[in-house]
Specification:
Elements (H helix, E strand, L loop, with lengths): L8 E4 L2 E4 L1 E2 L1 H18 L5 E5 L5 E5 L1 E5 L3 E7 L13 E9 L4 E5 L2 E2 L1 E2 L15 H17 L5 E7 L3 H5 L4 H4 L1 E2 L1 E2 L7 E2 L4 H17 L4 E5 L2 H9 L9 E3 L4 H11 L3 E7 H7 L14 H11 L4 H8 L4 H10 L3 H20 L4 E8 L3 E5 L3 H5 L4 H4 L1
Parallel strand pairs: 9-12, 10-14, 16-17, 16-18, 18-19
Antiparallel strand pairs: 1-2, 3-15, 4-5, 6-7, 7-8, 8-12, 11-13, 19-20
Length: 385
């Protein structure tokens, strides 16, 4: 069944990836359809919606029910070819008349509740973001105008299975409990969107800031958190943030939020690139790992033969093994961390403190920038208690 997105897609790695639509679009369409069924007394099977992106949608209405008191229906979330945890969920809207003017929007079962400061909605509110709220209100308001209805409407958004699905999202880390968030600034899901991932990192960082953090503890992913957990120093991993490959953007956001400093804990495979000024560490954007190791080895006094051996490596762990065997690991890591620190400072123009701890999956802690150990104390539970 056509939705209006049939001709919208991106090409990535020679594959066509189709667009989808957000939980916000689902909620708005369901609310608009439910309001019309309640006020006009007619079942609706399809609902037309103009998204903030300027792309019109025509969405199937499911499980419709209405009487003279209230109406409800659902729209099935379709994330397109994006790896979206909420894909396939039914987003329900239930509406009823109010005696007072205005449109009240609430969250029901499966929609999370905000429990920490720094998120878009205040503590205690349903995790329905500003743009979806505006979309829902517009569709319900239009239905009221078309039916010449001048009083208010109550709208409840619910998502069966939302509480379980939320465990696969950022929500538990952000302090959103009990369900998913109703999201989307454009109403459209662009597959593998970097903007969406960066926005989620920004949201988590802002939440840390609003809850009193002056410094950020950042890892590219789960391995960094595992490394920190293995140090056994009482580090509070609940306050850490994952930045994926977006090192430069993470530094930028920390500056914009007014943080005092940021400490990265990263595998050498990621941050050897940062030692060359590469701020997006994804393999499709850059590599040069072997070349950077070779250059740093020469700077540290290594032989041409060692540099050639490093250039032939396929993994950074191989490179670390070579440096260890040649007695060069410590001086090379001194070169690496010096340049990591310099490029991070260059990125933020000295506006905040930037430190990094680098590790190997095989050999553990490899090196750190000058202030890293001191900054690590800010994230130890006993230091803050």
């Amino acid at each position: 069944m056509e939705t209006g997105l049939e001709n919208y897609y991106i090409i990535q790695n020679n594959k066509k990836l189709r667009y989808g639509y957000t939980t916000g679009s689902c909620a708005a369409a369901a609310a608009g359809a439910a309001a019309r069924m309640l006020l006009l007394g007619k079942e609706i099977s399809r609902y037309r919606l103009m998204t903030p992106a300027g792309i019109p949608l025509c969405l199937e209405i499911r499980d419709a029910a209405f009487d003279g008191v209230e109406a409800s229906c659902a729209v099935k979330k379709d994330g397109g070819d994006d790896p979206d945890a909420t894909h396939g969920l039914l987003v329900y809207a239930r509406v009823r008349r109010l005696d007072t003017p205005g449109i009240v929007i609430e969250g029901g079962p499966g929609v999370g509740r905000v429990t920490r400061k720094g998120l878009e909605q205040p503590v205690g509110a349903a995790a329905i973001n500003r743009v979806p709220r505006e979309m829902i209100a517009k569709e319900v308001r239009d239905a009221c105008e078309d039916a010449d209805y001048e009083k208010g409407m109550y709208v409840e958004i619910s998502v069966p299975g939302g509480e379980e699905t939320a465990k696969k999202t950022f929500n538990p880390r952000l302090g959103i409990e009990g369900g998913i968030s109703i999201l989307g600034t454009k109403g459209i899901v662009i597959p593998m969107s970097e903007d969406a991932l960066i926005a989620s990192i920004r949201t988590e960082m802002r939440m840390r800031k609003e809850n009193g953090a002056r410094y950020l503890l950042v890892t590219p992913g789960n391995y960094g958190q595992d490394f920190l957990a293995g140090l056994g120093r009482g580090i509070d991993l609940e306050v850490s943030v994952k930045c994926s490959n977006y090192v430069g953007e993470t530094v930028d956001m920390a500056v914009n939020l007014g943080m005092e400093g940021i400490l990265f804990a990263a595998h050498i495979g990621k941050f050897i690139k940062v030692s060359g000024g590469i701020m997006n560490t994804h393999s499709r954007c850059s590599d040069a790992r072997a070349e950077l190791f070779a250059a740093h080895a020469v700077r540290a006094g290594g032989s041409l033969e060692t540099a050639r051996a490093l250039l032939e490596t396929q993994t950074t762990e191989e490179a670390v093994d070579i440096l260890l065997a040649e007695g060069l690991l410590e001086p090379v890591m001194a070169e690496v961390t010096k340049r990591v620190h310099g490029y991070l400072q260059h990125r933020c123009a000295g506006a905040i403190r930037t430190e990094a701890i680098l590790y190997s999956s095989v050999h553990g802690w490899l090196g750190e920038t000058p202030g890293a150990r001191k900054m690590l104390e800010h994230f130890m539970k006993e230091e803050r208690d």
